[in-house]
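Pasting as-is:
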Amino acid sequence: MADYSKIIAEADGDLPFGDCVSADINYRKELVIEYITTDYRTEIESKKLATVDREDTAKMAAFLNLPIEQLPQRILDECGDTSDICTPSEIKGIFKDVLEYILDCGVRYILK
């Protein structure tokens, strides 16, 4: 299976902690947005997943007039950071922007 994962934004790697937001299409053809926070000192990682079910993923792709596999790239284009220099608080804001973008497309997600 092809890799449809895209990193939307990452926090600066020089900090003792880091954040990352990524978008992926899983094997069930669901859109999954992952927000990971890592404390490098303690090596503790926490995750939040926002999953758009298969039916709503198809609706979102239709709304945007593109194949399901291109959703992660579209999210990167619309919400991603191009500066390559983000703080963890900016990453959190980008995660919120991605979730808002999903809602703006008329579909729902489940946050875990």
